[in-house]
Each structure stands twice: as structure tokens, then as C-alpha cells.
């Protein structure tokens, strides 16, 4: 028996986005992408849905968490590569996951070891929202107990979940009196069937012993969750993804790239059957500095430095120091170039406008930036670019 993810998505979107009665995947967990368009309060919302079908259903779920982490980081990597481009695509689509709804079976025992492992891993990479699925199976006392046990596991395991406190005022404004502060984890009931009750149309779930109103706060937290996802917390979820999780990933990756570049740019003592000594390393450094002067002579030009000329210099320097990787593959360097480009609207890809206008780099902010990424390829521009 599943956790009701497909039914929840169809209820949330008010349409059959995912077939409910389909067979589960045979080869463990499968990540599926779906999309839907929702109109909330007159606002059109294009919703991208990533479904981890079959998660936790196999005997061996060892790789399930790793697959989810790999997917989340892959979306960050796509965004980072686009950000590092000098000319970004106007049609670029952001595929980063802004909210991860984690469905928990109401067992009365709290979280399973697999739940804790997965929540800790994805909680460091996206906004996690824990959900108790199929809340119609619980009495009020059982629902309260499950919420208490799950939150205790979350606190004891230092699991990072989305902080709704910044949205309390907006939630209370839209749904006053629902006790938003005690809503996590949400206990939901899903159902797409509609029924007219006392001249009011409700989404309902039919059970052998009666009918559960999906939108009724006394029966389910569904309305509260929907309000958070599509209204009160929508922008904050996106901002948190970009400013915290993506920025953390971006910083780590660019720091790694910078360390790798600095390491590659250092003169490496090679034995070639001869003893290695500090004196030999110092000799090699002097030899490289001499090459810098020769390179400066070849590259000097009375013409103003355009972006195209700057890139040509960087290519030449990379070749000079046996750094054969293309600049486009150096994420750290490309990020610095993108930063430089954004500093001056005068810098055009056509190369018609000069960096800093007619003045010299040395007297402009750009000079500081140039020196910064110049160091990343193992040289100092000041050594051979004289004015």
C-alpha cells in the first residue's frame, strides 16, 4: 500500500496529473517529472512536480536516499552552469526543487530509520515539509500522538525542516484560528471526488463508514497545507531555496574549483630521477616569471582592453602554464568573468565597448576583480601588464 502521493497531487492540482491505479515500479525507486497549471486567487502558477515513485517500498532501499540527493544536486549544478555563462539563456528553466513533501506512514511509532536517513540528507538541500499520509485512518488522539512522536524524532535527529514561522502572519490572515504554529507535520486526507453537502460543494473521500471532507480543517490539514504551498509561503520557499540551499552549494563548488585551480597553477617539483629541493623549486619560479615578461611583450597593445581581448589573454596564459582545460570548463574562472561582466553594463559581447571606458583598469573597480581571478590561473597581471 502506498502513501497516497499520487492522490494528493491530483487533489492539490484539482486534476488527474498522475494515474492513481497504475502498477508500482518493479526496479525500485523511480524519479518522475510531471507538470500542471494551477490558478490560485487569480494568479497562474506553473507547477513542476517531481515524484519519487516506489521510495521505501523495496526490501533493499540503500540507494534511494542517494538517488534523491543526486537529483537535487543535479538541479543546482544546472543552475550554476547557467549562472556562470557570460551570455545566459532567456529561456532557461529553473528546475531546482523548492519544497520536498515527505509522506510518512502513520504507524504510531514515529519515523523509521530510512525516514531519518533520508530526511537528514535532503533537509540539507531543500525545504522539507513532513506530512502524515492518510490521516483518515487516525482518530484525533492517534493523530496527536503521531505528530508528537514524529516531531520528537525530528528534533532528536537534528533534521532540518522548513520553518513556517516567517509565514505565520500570512497564514493566519488567510486562515484565521487554525493554530498554524502547531501544524507540522501536516496530517492530510486526499480525495478528488466532489459532493454537495448543505448546498456547499466539498472535495471528499468516501469511506465504508462515511465521508471525509478533504477541505474541512476538523478532518484534515489539507487546506492549511495548500494555502502554505500555493499562497502564504510560496515566495519564501523559492527565496530560501535560492538564498540558502543553492548559495551553499554554489559556494562549495566554486571554492572547490578555486582550490583545484590554485593547486594546478603552483609549480610542481618533478624528480625525473633527480633529487627534489627547495632551491630547484625557486629556480622554476624564476623561470616562470621570466616567461611572464615574454608573454607581456607579445600581448601588449595600445588598443583599449575589450572583453574579447581579456579572454584571449586568459587563453594564452592557460596555454603558457600547461593548463590545457578549456576556460569554459573552469567553473570558478567562468564565475569571475560573469561577475566582471555584470559590473559594467558597458561590457558587450561584441567587444565594441571597453571595460572601464577610456580609463585604465588600475584606477577602477574592475582591476580588483581582474587581479582576483587572475590569481586563480597562477599568475599576477601586474607582473607583465604595465601601463
UniProtKB/TrEMBL annotation:
Entry keyword annotation includes Nucleotide-binding: yes
Which SUPFAM superfamilies does its entry note?
Answer: P-loop containing nucleoside triphosphate hydrolases (SSF52540)
Q: Where is the composition biased (Basic and acidic residues)?
A: 256-269
Q: Which residues form the Septin-type G domain?
A: 1-256
Tell me, in one coarse class, where this protein mainly resides. other
Location in or out of the cell: Bud neck
One GO MF term, please? GTP binding
Gene Ontology CC annotation, any one: cell cortex
Task: Give the span(s) annotated as Disordered.
Answer: 256-279
What Gene3D superfamilies does the record point to? P-loop containing nucleotide triphosphate hydrolases
Xref: PROSITE patterns: G_SEPTIN
Q: InterPro entries in the record, alphabetically?
A: G_SEPTIN_dom, ORC5_C, P-loop_NTPase, Septin
UniProt keywords, alphabetically: GTP-binding, Nucleotide-binding
Claim: Transmembrane is one of the keywords in the record: no
Of which family is this protein a member? Belongs to the TRAFAC class TrmE-Era-EngA-EngB-Septin-like GTPase superfamily. Septin GTPase family.
Tell me the PANTHER family matching this sequence. Answer: SEPTIN
Protein name (database record): DEKNAAC103617
User: What is the protein's species of origin?
Assistant: Brettanomyces naardenensis
What does UniProt list as this organism's lineage?
Eukaryota, Fungi, Dikarya, Ascomycota, Saccharomycotina
